[in-house]
Amino acid sequence: xxxxxxxxxxxxxxxxxxxxxxxxxxxxxxxxxxxxxxxxxxxxxxxxxxxxxxxxxxxxxxxxxxxxxxxxxxxxxxxxxxxxxxxxxxxxxxxxxxxxxxxxxxxxxxxxxxxxxxxxxxxxxxxxxxxxxxxxxxxxxxxxxxxxxxxxxxxxxxxxxxxxxxxxxxxxxxxxxxxxxxxxxxxxxxxxxxxxxxxxxxxxxxxxxxxxxxxxxxxxxxxxxxxxxxxxxxxxxxxxxxxxxxxxxxxxxxxxxxxxxxxxxxxxxxxxxxxxxxxxxxxxxxx
Length: 287
What we know:
mainly alpha; globular
């Protein structure tokens, strides 16, 4: 059981990431924009982790300034950029479509890992990657001769995948120097700082406290779909190859689709089912 913990951490992270639509969709209805959500998600997560690590392990805060560029990579280049594009894609399409387009990212991670660290592209990895890509093809509607998503959705979804992939790359460099907790904390320190320039903080925080139900949704967004999954994924990534971790986390579209279907009545189309089946097959191949 212990040897499978890293994989369990990553799968759990994927599931809780997939539930983010439960909070973001409801916040859109309350007047939030993708920029508002990015700011409150990053800033709120930083606040929670500051208190948590101050109590649990103060050594988390110790880093050398010469390594700070790793966290600019994980926090600003990856988290801020992929979050903005992902939430924009959610506004333009279904939760399932946004999540499955995001998971073209394992291909990017696998290729970059092979180039940078000479990770082997095994038959199982390649098979899982091909099946994952086929899932994205089904959802896009290419096989049926007509795209099921708009050009804007496709662009924002694939853009989010690229920047999301970079978290596994920058994160792996950082994990060679620091614990998973330190990497996660400084990722959100940089992400929160950058988010202050994305949208007005005063406007955002006035929305957060506009009602008790909105405040509760914001807390769920921060705790359930940000702090928990990022801590678990980074912990799992510290003991798992980047390419394999990225494919394992592709359980996220399954969770996102179920969230959209159960909570928001999104249609369960053949394209979505085929995409989800492909993702599950890819996870099975790797394990």
